[in-house]
Every structure is written in C-alpha cells, then in structure tokens.
Design goal:
The protein is mainly β. Among the domains are: 89 residues, no CATH class; 107 residues, no CATH class. It is 0% helix and 50% strand. The radius of gyration is 23 Å and the shape is flat. The chain starts with 25 loop residues before the first strand and ends with a strand.
C-alpha cells in the first residue's frame, strides 16, 4: 500500500529511508498504514484510546481488540486505520512480539525492538547500547514463525522489497547504530548483493538507489552499477522519472535518469506554512507537477522544467486527487492542474482531498461568538460534513478507509463519510 504524504514530517527531508523509530507502521496522512506483506486477506481496524490504553475497532465501531496496550506499547498520540495484512509488532513488558487482527500474540514478546513484516521477514533488534536516548541494536530478521533466519549482525536494516533490503555493517570505528557503518544491499539469505561501501543509501525508487560516498551523492541500480556518477552534494530518490539534486551545496537541479539536467532553480529561503524548508521539496513531482518558488511566491513546473502555473501563491501543497491547496493572502483554497481556482480561498487551513473529501477549517458562530471548527468539503467546496470538530494534535484530519478521527465535544471520535459517529470515547 502506497500513499503520498502531502505535508512535511520529521523524517521527510532525510535522503535515507528510515522507519520512524519504534513504528507499528508507517505514518501517512495522519493515519498509519502497515506494510503490505503477503497476498492474504487484509483486515482493516482503527486505533482507539481508553484511559491511556489502546485497542482497535472495526469500521462499524465494534471493539475487536480491547484497549489493553499502554501508551509506550503503541503510538501514544495517533489514531487511524491499521491494515492487518499480516502480524503487527506490539511491545509488552519491555519486549516486542507480534499480534494478529484479533489481538492474539502469534509471536510472543521476546525482542528488544521489532519492526513490521515485509515479504515474509521482519527486522528485529538486539540491544547493545544507547545513543541519544534510542537503543543501539544489532539487527537480524525473523520469519512468520518467529524464528531468527538472518542472525543479529547488522548495524541497521530496512524492510525487504523485491527480495532486497538495505543493511549496514560497522565501519573501522566499530560503532553500532543506524547512523554509523557502511551501507549495502542484502538478499533474503543475508548476503550482500551490493557491497557495503556507502555512507548512506536512500530509497530504491523507480529502479535506482541514491547513494553517498565521502559526502558525494549519485545513483546505482539494483545490481550496484553506477548509473549517475557520485558528484552531487545532495540527491533525492526518483519520482515520476525525475529527482532533485544539489551541486556544490548551492544550486538545486532537477535531473532525469540519465543525469541530464531538466531544470535548474534557485530558491528563496522562506518558511512556508506547509513547506518549512521548502527548498527540499521543490522537485517532488506529484501528478506530473512540482512546486517551485520565485520571489517568495509558489508556482508549479512540469517534468520538462516548464512553468505551467505561474508563481503567485503565498504557499502551496502537492497535488492529490487532481487538486492542490494554495494560499492567497491569509486564506486557503484549491486549484486544478491548469492553475484555475476551483474552490475560492476562504479557509483558515485545509487538507488535501483524500477519498473525495478534504478537511476545511473555518470560524462558526456559537452563541454569537466565533469559534474555530473543522468540517469536510467536496470538490465543489461545499460542506458535506458541517464544521463542528476540533483537531486532534497537530496532524491533518483526513478520511482513510471511510473513517476519520476527529475531536467532537472534547472526545476522540470516529465518523464516517456521512458524518455519523461510529465510535466515541466514554
């Protein structure tokens, strides 16, 4: 399951793909989605809280797994959909194990750290120290029976994709931990198919890894062959056939898979509401368009580097489901791929459209006073679910698998697309 994250998060600007530490799953759109691990039937459940305990409901609000997990056993502030397409790691009494969609431990808690399964294998860690308050581990892989099939030997490992996974070994300093050592790529036997010679390896995306040696970045293929030489100061994974790179810690370029420069761009160092350090996301193409910045205004270019939507907005987001959020003066609205305003700027904030609806933030009158509330609009800009909710935490509210997590009457609540409450904490 793949979704494009439309807002900056703490891990987004890192060239390397790392799990956010202690993940149950990948945090996307203010929800979490477990990684696709097999073709078996999936079960979709939703996280609930009760007296600082966590459990799961189905889409009808029926409690499937009672709230028995402590907040240090699960994400302590997120709600949303979890796709149980295999086993999910859970911590109990300082050890990690794996539960099924009924809450049964299929693999008993026994690991110092455990990450989600992918392609039948899951990374598990053996604690050997601490760095910056996070355990340093030796890492290996278990199978679905809980058997250790690749021994604890790596500084850090990633999930398997297409039979390969990024892994690192200690360098000549002998340091352990995810930020130390030399990185390569292993197969399911634990053997390196790309030698561990790199300081960093990023996403395998569209057939290429972005890699670093001695602070220079380039690209290799799945066999380790250099496709684009390592001479950039920075390089991001390819998306839609293009990647953002930096020359000599100065100019950012957009290149194709041959290394040819498609477009070069200087940027303005301005903090945007939805694009903090926007220079890092200038060339993140979504639906064929990417944000660019000129004189403190946002516009869009196509994959040829041509300006298709003039830089005119105070802030902007990526496109999703055919629309992008744009800010004019202090209000947010929506544009289409042609740059036409299809929903007039009128909202204090908004999310992107997902499953046909978008969150919209406005003021409403209650007892003749203005109160800030959130509702959901359709592509015409009409409120399908009237503004009545406050927003949990700092994340955007969005629908996923037909439910959205909101705050109603100061209580955590799940609603469906008709606005009906399917579950509310008591």
């Amino acid at each position: 399951m793949v979704k494009i994250y439309q807002y900056p998060i703490w891990n987004y600007f890192n060239n390397n793909r790392h799990y956010d530490f202690y993940p149950i799953a990948k945090f996307v759109y203010g929800i979490i989605n477990s990684t696709k691990m097999s073709d078996k039937k999936t079960t979709i459940l939703y996280i609930i809280r009760y007296k600082d305990k966590f459990g799961f409901i189905d889409r009808n609000g029926k409690i499937i797994i009672k709230p028995i997990f402590n907040n240090d056993q699960f994400f302590n502030r997120y709600e949303g959909a979890v796709v149980f397409d295999n086993l999910i790691p859970i911590k109990q009494k300082k050890k990690w194990g794996y539960i099924d969609s009924l809450g049964n431990f299929i693999i008993s808690p026994q690991f110092d750290v455990a990450l989600p399964f992918s392609e039948g294998l899951a990374p598990v860690g053996l604690k050997v120290g601490m760095s910056y308050g996070i355990p340093d581990c030796k890492w290996g892989y278990i199978d679905l029976s809980g058997q250790l099939v690749i021994d604890y030997q790596f500084n850090w490992i990633e999930k398997f994709e297409n039979g390969q996974a990024i892994a690192s070994i200690p360098d000549n300093r002998g340091l352990v931990g995810r930020y130390h050592g030399k990185h390569g790529v292993i197969n399911k036997k634990g053997a390196f198919v790309i030698k561990p010679i790199y300081e960093s390896i990023g996403d395998f995306s569209e057939g290429l890894y972005n890699v670093e040696i001695k602070k220079k970045w380039g690209y290799i293929d799945a066999k380790g062959k250099i496709i684009i030489p390592l001479h950039y100061s920075d390089a991001s994974p390819f998306k839609e056939g293009l990647a953002k790179v930096q020359e000599d810690n100065k100019n950012y370029l957009c290149i194709g898979k041959t290394g040819k420069t498609i477009h070069s761009c200087s940027y303005d160092s301005k903090n945007f509401e939805y694009g903090f350090e926007t220079k890092y996301s200038i060339y993140r193409f979504c639906e064929g368009l990417a944000i660019y910045i000129s004189k403190d205004k946002c516009g869009y270019i196509n994959n040829k580097g041509e300006e298709t939507i003039k830089a005119q907005f105070n802030d902007a987001t990526d496109f999703h489901e055919g629309f992008a959020c744009v800010k004019i003066d202090k209000k947010w609205g929506f544009i289409n791929h042609k740059g036409e305003i299809v929903i007039q700027p009128q909202f204090k904030s908004s999310s992107l459209f997902n499953e046909g609806l978008a969150m919209a933030h406005t003021d409403i009158k209650i007892d003749k006073k203005d109160y800030s509330r959130y509702g959901f609009i359709d592509p015409k800009g009409e409120f399908i679910i009237k503004p009545q909710f406050t927003k949990p935490d700092e994340r955007p509210i969005t629908f996923d698998h037909n439910l959205a997590s909101v705050i109603l009457d100061k209580k955590r609540t799940y609603i469906n697309k008709s606005g009906k409450v399917v579950w509310q904490e008591t």
